[in-house]
């Protein structure tokens, strides 16, 4: 019998030489409610105020999203000092330290805060813990904008960053100290549990957050990777290297012993990665658009006869309201 050959629409036809490839597509994947909202905030700000609208930091950690908004008239900067006095500015989904809106107020800048409501919830909890006289141990990754933003909600010296289980042993506190902990929203669920277990073992008095700070989108995307990774020879995660939740998805697959790669776009996939590979898992971080997922499926279909199989870990229905200043 003849091997099948490639047809223009990717479907198999007689004579096609492509080897079959099973593609397990994780769900949920890609945009979360906080990212949808943040992007819509920039788009609506452009409509309401006209171009340019400045955005402090990448609105979400995705080059494709940032470039699309640049094309519509957004200007991305890292610091408020780069924003002219008469231009509107949007703060990114990751949140900002209190000093940023304070400076914007001082300069009478028009600003819109696109901080994800789930990040803002952690900010408010940090304030409450400080009011109660607690010292906060904040679990997160140094230098990440969300970490800078959340640590910047409270006075200096009242919050200490904890990045690893090893850090816990070094903390200069005792079982007599009034301690609480909070976490970044986009951490590894499993690594974080190891750190909180270590904290609770060393400081039995420590106060935990009321509810898990790791957000629903982060934990659902990790849960889906946990389902597909054991059946895959390779997991592809679409996301940026500075996207915390995306990098965590690669780690989740690797922890299960599956080779995983973080890619920003389909053109980064090297044909050699697919040698001897029969099943590929595909997911996307919370800041990666679905268009980039389809782009990857199309690229894989150029080389292999792809059979797609969706695998769903959870249904998501979360929607966040826009700031009133953009809806009135
Ligand atoms: O926090 P992280 O680096 O994962 O951000 P992101 O822009 O990739 O994803 C959405 C968010 C937030 C907050
Ligand atoms: Fe909000 Fe979670 Fe999305 Fe970040 S990943 S924007 S915290 S919903």
List the main descriptive attributes of the protein structure presented here:
328 residues; alpha/beta; Cobalt-precorrin-4 Transmethylase, domain 1; Rossmann fold; 3 domains; 5-stranded parallel β-sheet; 4-stranded parallel β-sheet; 10 helices; 35% helix; flat; disordered N terminus; binds but-2-yn-1-yl trihydrogen diphosphate; binds iron/sulfur cluster
In short:
The protein has about 325 residues and is of the alpha/beta class.
Summarize the amount of helix as a percent range: 25-40%
Distance between the termini: 66 Å
Bound molecules: but-2-yn-1-yl trihydrogen diphosphate, iron/sulfur cluster
Mean pLDDT, to the nearest integer, reads 96
Spatial arrangement of strands, main beta sheet: 12-11-13-3-14
Q: How is this structure best described in words?
A:
This protein is 35% helix and 20% strand. The chain has 328 residues and is an alpha/beta fold. It folds into 3 domains: 20-31 and 216-312, 4-hydroxy-3-methylbut-2-enyl diphosphate reductase, catalytic domain (Cobalt-precorrin-4 Transmethylase, domain 1), CATH 3.40.1010.20; 33-113, Rossmann fold, CATH 3.40.50.11270; 118-213, Cobalt-precorrin-4 Transmethylase, domain 1. The strands form 4 sheets. A 5-stranded parallel sheet has the order 12-11-13-3-14, sandwiched between helices. It has a 4-stranded parallel sheet with strand order 5-4-6-7. α3 (99-106) links the parallel β6 (89-91) and β7 (111-113). α8 (216-228) runs parallel beside α9. It is flat. Bound molecules: but-2-yn-1-yl trihydrogen diphosphate and iron/sulfur cluster (SF4). The site of iron/sulfur cluster (SF4) has 15 residues, from α1, α4 and α8.
């Amino acid at each position: 019998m003849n091997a099948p050959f490639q047809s223009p629409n990717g479907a198999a036809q007689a004579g096609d030489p492509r080897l079959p490839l099973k593609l397990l597509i994780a769900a949920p994947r890609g945009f979360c409610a906080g990212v949808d909202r943040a992007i819509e905030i920039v788009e609506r700000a452009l409509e309401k105020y006209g171009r340019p609208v400045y955005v402090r930091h990448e609105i979400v950690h995705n080059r494709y999203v940032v470039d699309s908004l640049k094309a519509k008239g957004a200007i991305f900067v890292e610091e408020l000092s780069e924003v002219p006095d008469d231009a509107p500015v949007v703060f990114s989904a990751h949140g900002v330290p209190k000093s940023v809106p304070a400076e914007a107020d001082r300069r009478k800048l028009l600003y819109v805060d696109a901080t994800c409501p789930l990040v803002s919830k952690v900010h408010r909890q940090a304030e409450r813990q400080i009011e109660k006289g607690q010292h906060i141990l904040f679990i997160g990754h140094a230098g990440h904008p969300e970490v800078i933003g959340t640590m910047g909600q409270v006075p200096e010296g009242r919050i200490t960053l904890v990045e690893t289980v090893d850090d816990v042993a070094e903390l200069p506190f005792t079982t007599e100290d009034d301690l609480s902990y909070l976490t970044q929203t986009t951490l590894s669920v499993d690594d974080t549990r190891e750190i909180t277990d270590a904290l609770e073992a060393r400081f039995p008095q420590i106060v935990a957050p009321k509810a898990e700070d790791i957000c629903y989108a982060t934990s659902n995307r990790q849960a889906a990777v946990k389902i597909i990774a054991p059946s895959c020879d390779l997991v592809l995660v679409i996301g940026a290297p500075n996207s915390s939740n995306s990098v965590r998805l690669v780690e989740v697959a690797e922890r299960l012993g599956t080779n995983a790669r973080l890619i920003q776009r389909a053109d980064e996939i090297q044909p050699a990665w697919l040698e001897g590979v029969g099943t590929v898992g595909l997911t996307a971080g919370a800041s990666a658009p679905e268009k980039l997922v389809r782009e990857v499926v199309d690229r894989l279909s150029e080389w292999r006869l792809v059979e797609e199989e969706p695998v769903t870990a959870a249904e998501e229905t979360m929607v966040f309201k826009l700031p009133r200043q953009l809806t009135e």
